């Protein structure tokens, strides 16, 4: 019997917290390293940054013979073709997700949704409550933290008050872009607030490092963020990505 496909979103109502980058990196790590069948629904209108990255990756690979050889070698070793990235408006996101599941010859383990930065987008609330889990990246910025907490409180209260069965099982925050040189005062205060309010927070923190910005380029073969390659093993050290993916995989039972 096929296992039900999981719907996951790395989402936040504030920009600049890394949700699209982490969605791409996590999808590539799971698909090419952990051999999980994944797909991405990019409904982050109007940026559609992940869909645009796929097109940029294609252009870069087509212009770089070394990357073409690397991609062919990866396919020979892993037999992993590129995962699907679908460009969608929120109203169509769930329909496209089901079409991916129905049309795939293999069971799709996980579909990641890149959501818009506002709940005011048409159809976005329906998408939010049809996720299995939402993971919210937060950074040490008071405005981001206030916005993130408001978003989580609103979703949680709506879920508690709803008389209808909702697919959403949990919404969990995690620290991103953590700079060890910063004061721990804001982190400590927010962690205590989360604990007091009974909201969940991942143990894994992601550091503030330029590694997460290393994309495919004509003059760069070592990458961390790509839709065709997993993060380079040389760059995984001190990135906490492996711990991040492992912790999430245990939570969602992937």
From TrEMBL:
SUPFAM superfamilies linked: P-loop containing nucleoside triphosphate hydrolases (SSF52540)
Pfam families per the UniProt record, alphabetical: CbiA (PF01656)
Taxonomic superkingdom: Bacteria
CDD domains hit by this protein: ParAB_family
InterPro entries attached to this UniProt entry: CobQ/CobB/MinD/ParA_Nub-bd_dom (IPR002586), DNA_Partitioning_ATPase (IPR050678), P-loop_NTPase (IPR027417)
Domain CobQ/CobB/MinD/ParA nucleotide binding residues, every copy: 8-215
Signal peptide: none
Coiled-coil residue windows: none
Protein name: ParA family protein
């Amino acid at each position: 019997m096929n296992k039900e496909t999981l719907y996951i979103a790395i989402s936040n109502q504030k920009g600049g917290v890394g949700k699209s980058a982490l969605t791409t990196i996590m999808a590539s790590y799971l698909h090419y390293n952990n051999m999980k069948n994944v797909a991405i629904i990019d409904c982050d209108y109007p940026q559609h940054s992940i869909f645009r990255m796929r097109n940029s990756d294609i252009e870069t690979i087509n212009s770089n013979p070394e990357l073409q050889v690397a991609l062919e070698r990866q396919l020979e070793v892993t037999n992993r073709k590129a995962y699907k990235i679908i460009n969608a408006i929120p109203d169509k996101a769930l329909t496209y997700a089901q079409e991916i599941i129905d049309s795939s010859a293999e069971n799709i383990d996980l579909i990641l949704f890149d959501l818009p930065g506002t709940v005011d987008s048409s159809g976005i609330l329906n998408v939010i409550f049809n996720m299995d889990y939402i993971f919210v990246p937060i950074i040490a910025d008071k405005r981001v933290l206030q916005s993130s907490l408001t978003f989580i409180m609103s979703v949680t209260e709506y879920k508690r008050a709803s008389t209808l069965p909702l697919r959403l099982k949990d919404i969990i925050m995690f620290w991103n872009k953590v700079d060890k040189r910063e004061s721990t005062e804001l982190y400590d205060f927010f962690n205590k607030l989360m604990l007091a309010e009974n909201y969940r927070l991942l143990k894994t923190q992601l550091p503030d490092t330029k590694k997460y910005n290393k994309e495919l380029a004509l003059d760069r073969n070592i990458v961390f963020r790509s839709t065709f390659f997993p993060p380079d093993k040389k760059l995984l050290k001190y990135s906490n990505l492996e711990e991040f993916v492992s912790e999430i995989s245990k939570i969602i039972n992937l």
